[in-house]
Amino acid sequence: MNHMSILVADDDPVVRRLLEKRLQDAGYEVTVAGDGVEATRKLASQRFDVVVTDLVMPGDIGGIELLQVVKEKSIDTEVIVITAHSSIDTAVEAMKKGAVDYLEKPVNFDELFIRLEKISEVKSLIRNADDLREAMDVTESSAAQTIQYLEITAADLQLKLDQLRKILSDPEKEEGVRIAEALKIIGVQ
């Protein structure tokens, strides 16, 4: 079971339904939008791991504009742009604006699933790195507290040793008095 949530934005109902069905069958959590405006509304209320968007959609928000909205909202949401109108220029523009990948229609689902698996692997590595960083921070904090405690304890012991040395070497006090004072310092009475 794949645990990524995917928003599919495509104005073609056949392509949209096909993407939805194939992605759900592969175990992804899928939400669909019929255009960029609807996709933007869904992005405002829900977080997605991946957005798969058609490049050319009607209205003010096409694929490139949706890509920009996605990246402004959440830099770690990946965007795959799909289009029937492919060109090197549009692919380069999409990649420059933050798309992780670019696919031509008709969608080759083997390619799409490979790309989604790579995105999943990268997200997993990032989560693992974040977990390790957090564990290191906790360990570092704990070590710092332990070192501070040991430094204070060592300073206290050194003070007691200095006091014991002074008391036990004081020739003006009787031996019994020196021993009693020494025992008092070390907490034995």
TrEMBL record:
PROSITE patterns hit by this protein: RESPONSE_REGULATORY (PS50110)
Coiled-coil intervals: 122-167
Gene Ontology process terms (BP): regulation of DNA-templated transcription
Domain Response regulatory, first and last residues per copy: 5-120
Xref: SUPFAM superfamilies: CheY-like
Swiss-Prot/TrEMBL keywords: Coiled coil, DNA-binding, Phosphoprotein, Transcription, Transcription regulation, Two-component regulatory system
TM stretches of this protein: none
Entry GO CC: cytosol; protein-DNA complex
GO molecular function: phosphorelay response regulator activity; transcription cis-regulatory region binding
A UniProt-annotated Pfam family: Response_reg
Residues with the 4-aspartylphosphate modification: 54
Protein name according to UniProt: Response regulatory domain-containing protein
Source organism: Desulfolithobacter dissulfuricans
